Amino acid sequence: MKQIGVFLHPERSTNDYMLSSNGTVIFHPLSAYVDFKRNSIWYLKIEFPIADLHGKELPNEAIFKVDLTYAKNQFFRMIYKEIDRKKNTYTCYCNHVFFDSQKEVIVFDKRSINTNWSGAINTANTIISECSPKNPYHVYGEINGQITTAYWEDYNLIQCLFGTEDNTLINRWEDDVKQYHPTAMFDNFSCYFGDGTKYPESMKPRNIYFSTSSEIEDDSLTETMENTVTGIIPKAYNGYMLPNHEIVKSSKYDQYKIHRIEFRKYDDIKLKEDASEDEKDTAYDTMDQVYTALREAANKDLALEDVPEKTYKLKPVDLPQYKNQRKIIKPNDYIVLVDEKTGVSETKFYIESYKFDLIKETTDSIEVSELR
Predict the structure, then answer these.
(1) Which of 8, 9, 10 is nearest to 189 (CA)?
(2) What phi, psi does 369 have (nearest 5°)?
C-alpha cells in the first residue's frame, strides 16, 4: 500500500533533513492526487485516517513529501485541512512549495529593460535575493530570442513569471512563448521556465504517443470564440495610435457573424523622445516608423488569435498494457495522437491540465490544446 510522509513541524527541520528523512509520520492515504495546471499553481489533495498520526496534532504549514513522475521527494505545504468526524479522516489541501514564493517574494518596482527572456529570469532572481526569503527559491530559464521590456510593480514572484497581468514574463515575451511554448516545471524551491530542451534531463519535454483507435477511450472538444480577435486597434507607449482610428484587420475580419475588435497596448513601441537612455537603441525616430511597428505587432497577434480556441479532453484506455503511458506523463510533455492503421501522427497537443493519482500512479483524463 502507498505510503506518504508528513513533516508536522517543518520550521524545526532543514530542507536537507526533510529530503533525506521519511517524515515525522508515515501514513497510508485513502486518496491522494496532484492537480497539475500549465503555468499555474500545482495542488495536492490528500485524505487519510486521523488515527495514522498516532495522537499527534496536524499543524498549519505541515509539509507532505510525495514522488512525482519526473522527480522524487517533492514538498507540498498544507494550505488548509478538513476534518470528517464521522469518517475520522483528514482531507488536506496543499500547494507545491515553490508557490510559497508568492507570499515571500514581492517587488515594488523592478524593470527588465531591453533584454531577452534569460535577462528577465536574471531580474527575477535579483528580486528573490533582495527579498531575503526563508526558502532558497531560484528560477532557471534560457531563451535568447525576443528583446523587450517589462515593468514589475507591486507584483509577487509568481505574477512576474506567469501572472495574467500585461507585464508578466509570459505576456511580454510573447514571441518566445509562441515559439517555445515554455511550461514551468518545479523541483521543490527551484523553477525551470524557458526552453524545455535545456531543462534537466528528467524534466525535458517528450512526445507521448497514443493510438486514436485503441488507446484513447473517449475524447471531447470544447470550442470557444470568447477570445477570438479579428481586429486590433493598437496603441503605442504614450498613447500613440494609428491615423484615422485605423483597425488592423485579419484576413478573417468579415468571415464571422460579428467583427471581433480589441484595443491593445504595445508599450515597448516608443518614440525615441519618449524612451529612457537604456531604450534608445530600440525606439523609433519617426511616427511613421511607430505606425509600421504597430501594424506589424498587431498582425503577428492576429495570426494566432483569429480562430476559435479548441480544448480537448482525452481519456486514455484503462488497461494494464497502456498503464506505462499514463504513468510517465508530466506537465510539459506533448501528447501525439497516431492513426493506428497508417502509423501517421495526426495531431500534436500540449498539456493544459490533468490530475495524477499518487496511489494508482496514473491519470484518468488529460486536458490538451492543439499545438499551432
Answers:
(1) 10
(2) -125, 145
H or E element at residue 124: helix 117-131
Q: Distance of alpha carbon 20 from its chain centroid, rounded? A: 28
Q: Looking up cell 478538513, which residue turns up?
A: 82
Dist CA 265 CA 166 (whole Å): 9
Burial of 258 (0-12, 13-18, 19+ CB in 10 A): exposed
- Residue 294 contacts residue 236 (beta carbons within 8 Å): yes
- Give, for 16, the enclosing helix (H) or strand (E): helix 15-20
Tens of pLDDT along 223-244?
788 889 999 999 999 999 999 9
Kind and range of the H or E run holding 138:
strand 138-140
161 closest CA partner among 200, 191, 199, 116? 191
Give the number of residues written for the chain.
Answer: 372
Nearest to 366 by CA among 316, 327, 309, 328: 316
The region of weakest confidence among 159-163, 214-218, 328-332 is 214-218
pLDDT digits (tens, 9 = 90+) for 92-110: 999 999 999 999 999 999 9
